[in-house]
């Protein structure tokens, strides 16, 4: 099940930023596994939410405040090679090479390859760390050579 939230309007961004500011003030004082929330409107409702939901709400609001669209996809979701390639923003043939080289785990369903979203996210994190490390090495080298960076 995938949930896609459309691109936020300017008003959505303002409301999200105000809400994010409020949530950020109290997030440091969270204790325990649940958070009590009061929702008012036509009627007042009190909810007990897992703290993880509260943290996810902060991420959603932060992205909305920046004007970004949001997609929520369960981590156990199996993706086709085209879907996985779209997420990585690479071509499908390149993704297949990554799969066949063992850099990203996959399984075959008939002739088709399937990739777990959580495995794709792990690969993205490792790749990002490697990229940052290489960039830092280049920056350090430029400093040593006094290249003005």
Structure description:
9% of the residues are buried. 52% of the residues lie in helices and 19% in strands. The protein has 2 domains: 3-72, no CATH class; 78-144, Arc Repressor Mutant, subunit A. Strands 5-7-6 form a 3-stranded antiparallel β-sheet. The chain has helices at 10-27, 51-65, 81-88, 92-100, 117-144, and strands spanning 3-5, 34-39, 45-50, 70-72, 78-79, 107-109, 112-116. The mean pLDDT is 88. Helix 1 packs antiparallel against helix 2 and helix 3 crosses helix 4 (92-100).
Give a nutshell description of this structure:
The protein is an alpha+beta fold.
Taking pLDDT < 50 over at least 5 consecutive residues as the criterion, the unreliable ranges are none
Mean pLDDT over all positions? 88
Percent helix among the residues? 40-55%
Number of domains: 2
Distance between the termini: 47 Å
Beta-strand content = 15-25%
Number of helices: 5
Question: How many DSSP E strands?
Answer: 7
Helix and strand layout, with pairings?
Layout: E1 3-5, H1 10-27, E2 34-39, E3 45-50, H2 51-65, E4 70-72, E5 78-79, H3 81-88, H4 92-100, E6 107-109, E7 112-116, H5 117-144
Antiparallel strand pairs: 1-4, 2-3, 5-7, 6-7
Question: Which keywords apply here?
Answer:
single chain, 149 residues, alpha+beta, Arc Repressor Mutant, subunit A, 2 domains, two-stranded antiparallel sheet, extended
